[in-house]
Write a structure and sequence with these properties.
Helix content of chain A: 25-40%
Strand order of the largest sheet of chain A: 5-6-7-8-9-11-14-15
Largest sheet of chain B: 4 strands, antiparallel
Order of helices and strands of chain B: HEEHEEEE
Helix content of chain B: 10-25%
Strand order of the largest sheet of chain B: 2-1-3-4
Oligomer: heterodimer
Shape of chain A: elongated
Structural class of chain A: alpha/beta
CATH class of one domain in chain B: Alpha Beta
Shape of chain B: globular
Chain lengths: 488, 139
């Protein structure tokens, strides 16, 4: 290292002399830079190793996620390198977190291939997360310029058209994941689907790891499930669906399963996040081409979204998935068994459902984001929720959401159909009360008890699960209180 | 069977006051409320007959209740629903839809299976009521 100042070295001879130079001096730190409207902006939480300056660490992240390598290379001069270098332009200490910093980095749009999440992520999270000068690194948020958003298909169906196809308006959709998640034969599995849909649910769902196993091969599941869906539809006069999981070992096999689901008349298929971004984009295109709703189960995401200091925030995954083009994505329940505090979860839901996201630091949203008329994604709330929480769920999550009560349907003491009916009655009663102007947050339990007077299954559900709550501290809460101390 | 399409089919049948409360909620949201009827409740029968145009500029849900009752006079033995339409950008579709009238007897649907190759089955749902000519399906 020949010079300790973080200023960019502008003299060509010195800048491109063979050897090693600080990233900040190479041009990856530009505190005066104003991001262009067309720039992609990434916000990283960086935790430098002891003794590593935060500005140099931010510049290193900019460098390693764009053009730099560990040493000076003269071939930079064969390019318009000022343009291609990502620019760290702002570094702020994280409130109440000594040693952690927010680094804002801008990337020129030409660094990215249009319409490719794989290319975007290969740059932004490709190499840099294992970089030795950092103890930890987390991608907290991204601003995606309209010019770039417009290169993506977006959700194949979207909330509005999904509702039109299902002929279902004015209330959250209801679903349940078939349990036990492993071991049922196709015939037994279809029984659960039939009972749940006939009892009042709109959807049932394969779990993330139901693919094609010795106890139930995929064709058997699809055939029995579609018998169940159509029986339930005829019994109720409603459009029903079951998320047939087409996740498989190869793209060819996934297409074959999806085509079979289509040939049987299914309105929806499902994939897991672990199939990868390119496979997800391919299935989104297939879904658009075949009038199919596409459900994405976020299997595996907690391996990198949960810890605050390292990984990728789920709000970034949500943005990528809206670009990639899925229709449904799990986004947390606030009150259920899985991670998610109310303020952070609201941020996710806004990313799914709004046309424009204003900066909202209290919800973890660091940038204004316009969605340029991309369809909206339907959030799915699943995991440890039951009918007795209906007022909380409707208050926190709103109307455009799939509420999935797996155990809360199938575990009902009087059977699956009774469990489904309990959930549907609780839901309709709560929507009715909200629309009629009642304070459902405070009167929710009374509203449910009143509804249960004419619905025995609901009374049984309330009695069974009345004391079940999951009250643990969240590992991923926003860094900013409702009154922002820092503006972006 | 009980046809359970719509936002509130699992609740007891609506009184005029229930209709008024829910329609007023929609009106206060800026949505246009309309009344539709049908004698073919097939789940994919999208276009029920319109009882007049959507009430775009109507501020008072009492007018909706009035129209529902007028519609009942002519089509009281059929299905009648109230729909709320939201014209705001990014939505431009239905926001609510609830049944406010149903026939005394609801015969439901027949599931027709056409066995295909392998074990595949092509399913069709038919309204029993639609076996009779339009207009003569319910009393």
């Amino acid at each position: 290292m020949n010079d300790m100042s973080p200023q960019t070295v502008t003299d060509g001879k010195k800048r491109y002399a063979a050897g090693v130079m600080k990233y900040a001096q190479m041009g990856y730190w530009e505190p005066d830079y104003t991001p262009k409207d067309t720039d992609v902006i990434a916000l990283f939480r960086i935790t430098p190793q002891d003794g590593v300056d935060e500005i140099e660490a931010a510049a290193a992240v900019a460098g390693e996620s764009s053009t730099a390598t560990w040493t000076v290379v003269w071939t930079d001069r064969l390019t318009n390198c000022d343009k291609y270098r990502a620019k760290a332009y702002r570094v702020d200490p994280v409130p109440n977190a000594p040693g952690e910093f927010f680094a804002y980095i801008a990337y020129d749009l030409d660094l990215f291939e249009p319409g490719s999440i794989a290319n975007l992520t290969a740059s932004i999270i490709g190499n840099v997360f294992g970089f030795k000068p950092l103890k930890a690194l987390r991608l907290e948020d991204m601003r995606l310029p309209t010019a770039y958003v417009k290169t993506f298909q977006g959700p194949a169906t979207g909330i509005v058209v999904e509702r039109e196809r299902l002929n279902c308006y004015g209330r959250p959709l209801l679903g349940a994941t078939v349990k036990p998640k492993l071991g049922l034969s196709g015939r037994n599995y279809g029984r659960v689907v039939y009972e749940a849909l006939k009892g009042g649910l709109d959807f049932t769902k394969d779990d993330e790891n139901i693919n094609s196993q010795p106890f139930m091969h995929w064709r058997d599941r699809f055939l029995y499930c579609m018998e169940a869906v159509n029986r339930a539809s005829a019994a109720t006069g409603e459009v029903k669906g079951t998320y047939l999981n087409v996740t498989a070992g190869t793209m060819e096999e996934m297409y074959a399963r999806a085509e079979f689901a289509k040939s049987l008349g299914s309105c929806i298929v499902m994939i897991d996040l672990v199939i990868g971004y390119t496979a997800i984009q391919s299935m989104a295109k297939w879904a658009r081409d075949n009038d199919m709703i596409l459900h994405l189960h976020r299997a595996g995401h907690s391996t990198y979204t949960r810890q605050r200091s390292h990984g990728v925030s789920f709000r970034v995954i949500a943005k990528w998935m809206r670009l990639a083009g899925v229709d449904h994505l799990h986004a947390g329940t606030v009150v259920g068994k899985l991670e998610g505090d109310p303020a952070t979860t609201k941020g996710y839901y806004d990313i799914f459902r709004e046309e424009h996201n204003p900066m909202a630091l209290e919800n973890g949203i660091f940038f204004d984001q316009d969605w340029a008329s991309l369809n909206k994604m339907m959030p799915v709330a699943s995991g440890g929720i039951h009918a007795g929480q209906m007022h909380q769920l409707l208050t926190y999550l709103g109307e455009d959401v799939v509420l999935q009560f797996g155990g809360g349907t199938i575990g009902h003491p009087h059977g699956i159909a009774a469990g489904a009916t309990a959930n549907r009655v609780a839901l309709e009663a709560m929507v009715y009360a909200r629309n009629a102007g009642r304070d459902i947050w405070n009167e929710g339990e009374d509203i449910l008890r009143d509804a249960a007077k004419t619905c025995t299954p609901l009374k049984q559900a309330l009695d069974t699960w009345k004391d079940v709550t999951f009250d643990y501290a969240s590992t991923d809460a926003p860094d900013f209180a409702p009154t922002p101390e820092v503006s972006a | 069977m009980r046809l359970t399409q719509g936002t509130f089919s699992f609740l007891p049948d609506f009184t005029d006051e229930d209709i008024r409360l829910q329609a007023q909620y929609a009106i206060d949201k800026g949505w246009a409320v309309s009344v539709e009827w049908t004698d073919d409740p097939h789940p994919r029968n999208t276009y029920w007959e319109m009882w007049g145009h959507p009430m775009f500029d109507n501020p008072d849900a009492a007018a909706v209740v009035y129209e529902v009752n007028e519609c009942r006079k002519e089509h009281g033995g059929k299905y009648i629903r109230v729909i709320a339409f939201d014209a705001s950008p990014g939505w431009e579709s239905i926001r609510m839809s609830f049944i406010v009238n149903r026939p005394k007897e609801e015969p439901g649907f027949r599931l027709v299976r056409q066995e295909g190759e392998g074990r595949t089955v092509r399913y069709t749902i038919q309204s029993y009521s639609a076996d009779r000519p339009e207009g003569a399906r319910y009393a």
